[in-house]
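Justification of computing resources. Each target in the renewal requires a structure prediction run like the one illustrated here; the chain below, 391 residues long, is used simply to show the kind of job we budget for.
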Amino acid sequence: MNNKAVILGCNYYIGLSTIRCLGVNGIHTVAVDYSDINRYGAESKYCSERLIAPHYKEDPKGFIRFLKEYASKQSAPPVLIPCHDSYVEIIDEHLEELKESYLLPPIEQGLYRKVMNKETLHQLAVEKGMAVPETVRINEEDFFEKVDTIIKYPCIVKPVDSPSFVATFRRKLFKVHNKEELVEALDKAKNAGLEVIVQRIIPGFDDHMYTFDAYLNHDSKVTHWVTCQKHRQYPINFGASVYTEQKYVPELYELGSKFLEGIGYKGFAEIEFKKDAETGKYYVIEINARITNFNNLLYKVGVNFPYITYRELTGAPLEPKAVKEDKKIVFWYAYEDMLAIRDYIKTGQLSRKEVIRSLFKRKAYSIWDWQDPKPAFAFLKNIASKYFKKR
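Resulting structure tokens:
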């Protein structure tokens, strides 16, 4: 096919797995980053071109102009695939303009940001009858009284705009145990100019976190889907997947497909749920509107979401597919999982025996691939460099 695949963000293993998923199918892949530093995903043998663009936040107009100029030089419109939340946000902001140059899902402009924004996602979920954690907004009357009676401590202070919060604090949220810690967390967010909400913590260990990963076609119908169960996250309890297993949970399909189809979503999405350990009820936690962290796991169990996206957008959609059995394969990001294991054991949430037993499952690695080892060596070089700088 003449349509190239332009992948935004290859300095992380999401971009790397996207490049591999397309490259193995003979697609010409183009890695776009804002810096040459640490872009180990672009070291893959499946990467056809490597480009450096203006920074999407420091020079957004220059970034969009760069993308359009690149597309204008191609013989066919490229497919544009973002691999980081910030790239999704800027694509959504300039959606109509980019559609003139790139192949993108025909989604309503603004919907990507609505599902990524915790406030608007909460509203959409409630409208569609989905369960969401009890929430109090900081501008509500009797705010502290509501936190005491409805939310209760400990609770979490979550950002409305996750990418900006993570970029500022290098964490996804604040967990607070009393009013003093809550005030401190709210002050930090206010001083950073970031909007936050306060939510109840749904009871249950990290293995009560589940995902519904799906692709919706141009008619907003789910054509491909997989469900997974997290086992470990980093940072622990409120972090990203580091050890996640494919697990068939039909109830998540019923909930997830109804919601995504109901809001007119198109393209790839991942809904993150938490199962209440006391009631068994599934609560919507967040939605990822870009390729997920454990994309390599989804590929290993037979659902190649980047290639599904590419084929749909180039007019040659693949046959629908769902994984309706347990393949007993886990995604493993070993580097951060080792850090997570340390903290789980330190806090008494896991025993060494439980950890060792879990490690014997068949794995889909985040970075390592026998057929494409160079990115792993580049990643190790980056880690070693950071270590010696600290020393």
